[in-house]
Amino acid sequence: MNGLARDVRFGIRRLARTPGQTLAAVTALTLGIGLSTAVFSMTYGIVVRGLPFEEPEELLHLESEDQLRKPSQNQPSLGVYLQDFLEWRRRQTVFEGLAAFYLETANLSGDSHPERVEGAYLSADAFGLLRVRPALGRGFLAGEDSPRAERVVVLGWGIWQARYGGDPHVIGRKLRVNGMPATVVGVMPKGFGFPLHQQVWQPLRLDPVRLRRGPGQTVEVFGRLRDGATLEQARAEMTGIARALAAELPATNRGRGAVVRPYTEKYLGSGPAGMLYSMLGACLLVLLLGCANVAALTTARAAQRTREMALRAALGAPRGRLVRLLLVETFLTAALGTALAVPLAYAGVRTFNALIADRNVPFWVNVALDQRALLFAAGLTLLAALASGLVPALQASRAGLAEVLKDEGRSTSQRMGWTLRAIVVMEVAVSCALLVGAGLMIQNVRHVSTRTGFRTSRLFTARLALNESRYAGNAERVRFVEELLRRLRQDPAVLAAAAGSYVPATGSATSAYAVEGEIYAAEKDYPVAHMASVSTGFFERFGAGVVRGRGFEPLDTAGSLPVAVVNQSFARKSWPGRDPLGRRIRIALNGRAGEPWRTVVGVVPDLAMEHVAISDDGAGFYLPLSQEGSAVLNLVVETRDPDPLTVTQRVRDHVAALDGDLPIYYVYSMEQAVEIVGFSPRFFAAAFSVFGLAALLLASVGIYGVLALSVERRIPEIGIRMALGARPGSVLALVFRQGLAELLAGLGLGLLLAWPIAKLLSGLLVGVDPQDPPTFLGVVLVLTAVSLLACWFPARRASRTDPVTAIRYD
User: Fold this and answer.
1) I want to staple 229 with a disulfide (CB 3.0 to 4.6 A). Which of 225, 349, 468, 515 is the partner?
2) What is the largest CA-CA distance in the chain?
């Protein structure tokens, strides 16, 4: 222990003698360890941690799969027919039980101001399977999910605090949920938001006897595995049950399989998880660069200490003692880097949590710099110290006294020179790969931005959901929206108003459809496109004028000719090279038999019917809101004030004047709405840009440092060359040749490394080729320019060497 303490003190003194080199090494490791720890915290909190319930790995999500559908036709996962859920629950043996649910926002009113909150309908046994007890009151009782039972509701902790001030006497209170009276029977614990981020739960009141089998109402299903059962067993059993149902009921279940997977995987999907793992990998590459820089500095120090190491060995110091002496310095450097990395990681985690604070993230997401993150940082410290110090220490401790005295350590210096060159090649290669990833993500953001090329200024948006109890039919919904738009258009603060089932860039519904004159052998052969219902004036609010024909008019009513407007992508897809006006299409969605043929009366530009962050051709068609009403409406109000949110209360008052139980929600300016849906691509692009810039900085510092050390070792040789008549230009060329050789080797290796990384990112790119030539070329040019700049300063110093001073050097 005393020897180790002496080595630590000696290491501290050695680091203090070269503050510049020490600062560079600490900074490199701070960047690598800090970024890696922050992204580890995000990845663990979002993907790995899982549900905050007892034995969360036992909770699985179940859904149906249409095995007959073409791969290009949207997602293969489907909701579960209610009758199938009951059969699954009756036949299965690997689960403790299965429960059903579906998500639906809920209007709360009757006891206070109307408010829209995220809600869900659960079968009565759901809370029991989750093994979560209410903080107040009770959950659902058996039989309360019967259509004839009295309506009850369970509140979330957040809505209980915000709406009722945490009143413990809320149990038994009456309120209206979606226009229907209900009694509060429980309050869930703080942080509970199952299935995603819900705050109101009602019993799933569906009567399977009165619902026909097949297309119609579907539910989502989850279950808890029995003790000892595995995911593979659950998949095998549910696949067998689905096949049996398909054989018994071919009319409704032919080709319907069962999908079983971990619960959180259903909602996170492969995209965000893959991106987070990619970010973590990128951070570890940055750390690798930091280790390479420290290794380069350690190698240089070791080269300068070969005589010292040889003399110590000759005096009896064992090789392990010499290795430890050099490793202590790298451990001290790594420890200093980690001490600064933890605050950097904390700042990154805090920034990330602030960015997602209003994004309705799943309730189980908990990103924090906790014990696991700190242990991860400690592990990185150990790894960084070994990776950056072990090889230089072994090389330096290998030199013998006779060898050093014979050639003054030139062979050792030469070996370390090759090590330094290998480090530079690796740094350039890793930087190239990271910069390609950053470039592709930036291209992705640019492409997403072009997909939102519509007018957003002075536009107020808000959503409202019409209660089925009051607006059960299309006629009632049409009357409400027409009267609301009439009131809004007469408001002096409003220039114009429209409504639709979607707003651009946020994603719209999709539907199978048929084109008149085409023949479809089976349901799976119907094409699929986006579909939306909009009012008159909707396209004009976003600056999208009609390209051909006309838009919707007040004469397009429920009693007039069914019409449709298609976007340009839909027209090209359905009638390439032909005029779409006057042609007819029909909705072919399951459960909508008897749909009329709709005549195409107009063509409009592509108005981002797809979600901006999802790769999609954007082909779609529009129906008049007066003919195809919607229970969920998005208001679009063009305001006189540059700040559109100034009309929020006015819009709320107009809605309340028509229906006091109806709140507006998701209230944003159109610019805010676009910013929210584009958050994910921008965030990941910014993150990869930070990683790429950090890599570029570390690589340039590494190239400069290695070339500077090389020039310093070759000063006597350069002096002799200049004394024999060499010109400064030839000396410049000598240094540049070494730098260019390492640059070209690094670029070649880096491009090979970047190719699979680009393929890995391909699933996250929207409309961007993962092998985008401009991106690869741009990275090569940037790295070349930065590397040449890093070469210039050592080369310039070498070319100005005084021959007399150089010959007497060392």
Assistant:
1) 225
2) 105
